[in-house]
Amino acid sequence: MWKSITGRITLIAVLTAVSVVVLVPSLTDSVPAGWKDRVPKINLGLDLQGGVFLRLAVEIDKAIENTSMRYADDARAVCREKALPVLAFQKVGDGGFSLRFPPGDFATRAQATLKEEFPSLDVSLGEVKPDGATVIARMKPAEIQAIRTNAVVQGVETIRNRIDQFGVREPQIIAEGEDRIVVQLPGVKDQQRAIELVGKTALLEFKLVDEGASLEEALKGNVPEDAQVLYQKSVDPQSGRATKTPILVKKRALLTGDTIKTAKVNFGNQAGGAHVSLSFDTRGAKVFDRVTAENVKRRLAIVLDDTIYSAPVIQERISGGEAQITGSFTPEEASDLAIVLRAGSLPAPVKVIQNVSIGPSLGLDSINKGVRAALIGALLVIGFMAFYYRFAGMVADFALVFNILFLLAGMAAFSATLTLPGIAGIILAIGMAVDSNVLIFERIREEIRAKKSIRAAIDAGYDKAFWTVVDSHVTTLITAVILFQFGTGPIKGFAVTLSMGVAINLFTALVCTKVVFDYLNAKKPMQALSI
Amino acid sequence: MELVKNTKIDFMGLKKYAFSFSAVLVILGFVGTVQIYRGKANLGIDLAGGTSIQLKFQKPFSMDEIRSLLAKAGHSEATLQEVSGENILLVKLRALGKQDEKMVAEPMVNLLRQSLPGNPFVVESVSEIGPAIGHKLRKDAELAMLISALAIIVYLAWRFEFKFGVAAAIATFHDIFALVGIFWILGIEKDLLFITALLTVGGYSLTDTVVVFDRIRENIRLRKKGTFSETINLSVNEVLSRTIVTSLTVFIAVVTLLIFGGMVLRNFALALAIGIVIGTYSSIFVASPVVALWRGEKMTAVKG
User: Fold this and answer.
1) Sequence-ordered list of residues with C-beta below 8 angstroms from that of A360, at least 6 positions apart, any chain
2) pLDDT of A221-272, one tens digit each?
3) Nearest-neighbour CA in chain B from A337: distance (Å)
4) What gap in Å lies between CA A73 and CA A254, rounded to an integer?
5) Most buried among A235, A341, B49, B230, using CB within 10 Å?
6) What are phi and psi of A372, to 5 degrees?
7) Quick one: CA dihedral A316, A320, A325, A326, positive or negative?
């Protein structure tokens, strides 16, 4: 008898010690660093500390279209070099395009050339008419699949890079399904800025300003085939009013952001404004050198995501691979711009389809209310049990305290995230935790009424209630586990605490309380039980 | 101390009344469910898609002024809610189309910030959910309910017998429908937390039912004579004091949550509180009578 009792007491003592060691760093910051660093912590959910939750849809179709349009541009350039006159150009279905050539052998020659130059395209001859023939080029399925996978994987990588440089502790950036990315940024205060940083495609392009055509005509709708109208946004620093200036630029980008080696913020030159300095890699530097040499005295537009940041006149050939983006930036804007340029552009544009941002003050308010509700709930239940079952109720309360301790320690051990619904789960678990003891105590009362000895009544009460306790816990556990499996957000947090609470309760109710009665009985058989 | 002692209530004799009461609840719930599917049942934006913004102003504000500002920006269908005494404004905007996933929170906040320069505010929370996501969350929740029901029937069929499992599942769905019906009548917003509450209430009601079933099984083995209904009455009376005490402790915990848990958890706690009462009722008045009706009055042994 004693052996089994001391065994159980030792087990409870060990569990308690482990729980305290695991739990303390989650509750207070004033513990030695060696202890704090080696022990997992309870994370606070966004609703309890503020932050941003974003679900992004990756617009893969756009990435496929963009790639195919790049191929089309390249293909037309190749045709021009080989003196193959392209009469018309058209988009075809998913990731394809067609080029029309005049009569003669132009189309067949173009087909052969394109086949050779672009191994990732399926090039076929379209319809042949008296006035010409078309060549149809489509991206190969493998290429499209690669873009698909890359769009999400690379997207996650790029966003992670940006967030790391932005400086968020414990961000979570994960791919979800085939075309979703979920971003969680706990504790972020400047939320709109973070959202913009994550969602920016950040495709940087250098395009020549089209000075040969008339801007007025273009605004009326007569845009030359190889040009487009983009807008330069500038903000007046005094009035804060934003103005948009249209500029006609060539469609073809002379250089894109993927050749950037570094980007950093500098202050100085114009009226103390911030600007971003870029340096290109070797290939980019070479291209930039050539482009600037060929276009001295012309304007070069610096375009980010189809918005012009500046369009300075090229004063002289720029070798050395350095460039600057100026504009009316605040230091934060300039720093964010440098971050997205360093981290690279997203392979496909993303769209925010879910945004949950909780301000830090609301988070603090929630945690205060939640913790207060949990404490009051626990105290009321503890008080009720002690009042209703007297001594036995206090034994149940003692088990309940262990229950809460183990539950919190368990959450820390798994680095689980505590949310406001999670606190609700704890409160409900507390309410239900005493259920097993109620079942057992009512049985014991029945046995005592049947004139059994106290000791026999206790043993019979535990025995008879055992399967009822197990059944009732397992059914709750089933719902909790399923909630966890299929739930998202608030449901998950609730399910975690509820299922852990129920599982732990099985142990505390059956072991922690029984050992108290066994201990008292082993010392001297109990004559009466206050229950 | 004992709340109830040696009761001999004829619960099965009350089943006529109980069944009619339950029928009303279930019909209400059925209507409520249909209304949810027709999109006419005040669904929260996390299930229907839409935008919700919580702002805390420095000074009291005029709801009419804000309403007309938003209407001018094309958001006349926005619902405004004021948290009295705290200068807090809640703006909710349900998603209209199925395809449109446009985010409107930021322009809305900017508009208010520029239009009300004399009364600065802090954005306490923003929540924007595209209709497709709302739809998906709803589908997930439905799947969760279905799978829980199946898993529980399987578990109870294994621990007791199939008829008990189904009766418990019927009682559970009775509770879920009743809660949907009551929330629909009250016009309270139904969001993801409400669905969580439904599942929790389901789980709780089952626990209660299982305790009664356990005792019925035990008494069937002990008493060879008498009718099944008598055994049920005996069993329910025997566990009545446990049922009341447990429901009371859980109820105490949930009411604390209702009073002190803050605005976010208010509806959730309310659903749990109502659900606990219904769950307790159904384990006594619905689950066991269903078994009796199905099994007949013969005292055949239950396995296990």
Assistant:
1) A49, A50, A187, A189
2) 888 877 889 998 877 666 666 788 899 998 888 888 888 888 888 876 655 5
3) 20
4) 12
5) B49
6) -65, -45
7) negative
**Cα separation, B254 vs B262, whole angstroms:** 13
Mean pLDDT by 10 residues, chain B (304 residues): 80 91 95 86 83 90 89 85 84 70 79 88 88 80 81 82 87 92 92 84 86 90 85 92 91 92 87 94 92 82 62
Using the beta-carbon criterion (under 8 Å), do A427 and B204 form an inter-chain contact? no
Neighbours of B16 (CB within 10 A): 10
A307-310 vs A227-235, strand pairing mode:
parallel
Mean of pLDDT values over A396-422: 90
Q: How far apart are CA B201 and CA B204, in angstroms?
A: 5
Q: How confident is the model over A301-327, as a mean pLDDT? A: 85
Bridge partners of residue A265, in order along the sequence? A276
Q: Give the single-character DSSP code of A206.
A: E
Q: What is the pLDDT of residue A12?
A: 93
Q: What is the pTM of this model?
A: 0.81
Q: Cβ of B207 and A472 within 8 Å?
A: yes
- Closest CA relative to residue B195, chosen from B255, B117, B257, B143: B143
* CA distance linking residue A67 with residue A73, whole number of Å: 10
Q: Minimal Cα distance from A381: which residue of B?
A: B249
Residues A344-374: tens digit of each pLDDT: 888 888 988 889 999 888 888 888 888 899 8
Does residue B101 or residue A435 have the better pLDDT? A435
Predicted local confidence at residue B97, as pLDDT: 57
Chain B residue with CA closest to A432: the answer is B250
> Do residues B293 and B229 lie in contact, with contact meaning Cβ atoms separated by under 8 Å?
no
Which of A365, A387, A472 is facing B211, going by the closest CB pair? A472
Owner of token pair 């005049």: A102
- Can you tell me the distance from the alpha carbon of A397 to that of A393, in angstroms, rounded to the nearest whole number? 6
Question: Which of B255, B251, B257 is closest to A494 using CA atoms?
Answer: B257
* A365–B262 C-beta distance less than 8 A: yes
Place of tokens 């709780």: B204
Residue type, B54: Q
Cβ pair B49, B130 in contact under 8 A = yes
Selected for mutation to probe chain B from A471, A496, A505 (highest B CB count within 10 Å) is A471
Tokens of A479: 């719902």
Query: How many angstroms from the chain centroid is the CA of residue A426?
Result: 26
Span A156-214, pLDDT tens digits = 999 998 898 888 888 889 998 889 999 999 888 888 888 888 988 888 889 999 888 88
Mean of the per-residue pLDDT values of chain A = 86
Contact call for residues A71 and A91 (beta carbons, < 8 A):
no
A362·B124 Cβ contact <8 A:
yes
Distance CA A531, CA A394 (A): 10
Tokens encoding A405 = 């301790």
Chosen for mutation from A389, A475, A476, A506 (greatest number of chain B CBs closer than 10 Å) is A475
Structure tokens at B61: 């504000």
